[in-house]
Amino acid sequence: MVTIDTDRFENTFRRYSQIGRTDDDGLHRLALTETDRNVRDLFVEDLESLGLDIRIDELGNIFGRREGTDPDAAPVLIGSHLDSQPYGGRFDGQLGVLSALETLRSFEDSGVDHRRPIEIVNWTNEEGSRFKPALMGSGTFIGEFDIANTLEHTDSDGVTVAEALKQIGYNGEESCEPREPYDSYLELHIEQGPKLEEAGLSVGAVEGVFGMAWLEATIIGDADHAGPSPMHSRRDALVAASDIVTSVRRLSNRVADDVVTTVGELEVSPGSINVVPAEARLTIDVRSYDDDAVAELVDRVEREITAACNRENVTYELEEIWRIPHTEFSPRVSQTVLDAAEAVGADHQAMVSGAGHDATYLNEITDAAMIFVPSIDGKTHNEAEYTEMEDAVAGARTFAEATKQLASRSDDA
Ligand SMILES: [Zn+2]
User: Fold this and answer.
1) How far does the centroid of ligand 1 lie from the alpha carbon of residue 192, in Å?
2) CATH code for residues 211-324
3) Residue 412 pLDDT class (50, 70, 90 cuts)
């Protein structure tokens, strides 16, 4: 079994957390900023001192390669992301990259023999807060987004991805695509939900990710003066929209236990204190591991919208912006995670993820799975995000053991 150096792991985590640290112990490290450059420089330095072969691609994804005993074997890819949300937490992304780093360090220390090459990766702009879309680095790498197009995306100041990469010196030479087929991809991440903590467990072997649908509804009524216009003749778009918000919430547990529904955006126009709202635009996010449940929910949402609009005598337009089926990770890789957790004595369970990650995209080109560690109170994307070091260590141990097993596998196993 692999042993990791827990002191080194904790110290490294503390050191990385200083770069972009906020007053309230959070992390403010937006993609391709000066703070992102600083953490990347430290990461590259750490990869260099391990003697890894380092590559930086044209989108700034950073790879470090450790050879195995068979140079022709398909490599195992491990990693996550070092960028954060604005005033986000220290654990999201960073913990995964540093678990991968500690894994390679411990292999180096103890001379662990593995057949396959292992590559560690830091994906550019996972969060998608400065530049859209999220999962930019991994999505472009697997061919979901076009590289030329991605490089032209701008932030709110009009700076392009290409310019930002150049400014921080991470516009690499390599083409942003796999150089060869991978054997597998493994990523450790915080759960960002409360399930592991509630179950009192340290490790989740993630077997898949929820499917989802995004809808946008525009409710069209009439703008009238808030004084003279009598109540009975009003066609108030916001009254219908409010009705929709509460019915979308109530629908969540009607179809399947795991369905979650959210209205996250609401815009009212003309948006004046003394005018009856003429138009309301709202977005609806529906998720479940069961694609049929998502489809059924979308139908029911539309029926609720029709009913709400009839009651208020307004009309609507409904558009489905996005729909993705659930992701099933590789059973081989998630089973490896379960076996590894067992081997290192970490309390564990199999589970699914409500949120997408870089692993979701990697799963399209190789056998991928994830390891979750608990998030206290499920808090994330804010400074209060927290994972007990004991759980982080259990996760990192599981990660190292699983990586060793993946990298030792022969082709016919
Ligand atoms: Zn993340």
Assistant:
1) 9
2) 3.30.70.360
3) low
Q: Residue 42 in 3-state DSSP?
A: helix
Cα 258 to its chain centre, rounded Å, is 19
Give the pLDDT of residue 228.
Answer: 94
Q: Please report the pLDDT score of residue 51 as a whole number.
A: 97
Per residue in 72-89, pLDDT (tens digit) is: 999 999 999 999 999 999
Residue 413 has pLDDT above 90, yes or no: no
Ligand 1 centroid, distance to 126 Cα (angstroms): 7
Architecture of domain 6-209+327-408: 3-Layer(aba) Sandwich (3.40)
Cβ 95 vs Cβ 13: under 8 Å: yes
- DSSP class per residue in 56-118: EBTT--EEEEE--S-TTSPPEEEEE-----TTB-SSTTHHHHHHHHHHHHHHHHHT---SS-E
Ligand 1: centre distance to CA 81 (Å): 7
Phi/psi at 225 (nearest 5 deg)? -70, 135
For residue 201, count other CB atoms closer than 10 A to its CB.
21
Residue 323 burial (10 A CB sphere; 0-12, 13-18, 19+): middle
CA of 72 to the centre of ligand 1 (A): 32
What's the pLDDT tens digit per position in 254-264? 888 899 999 99
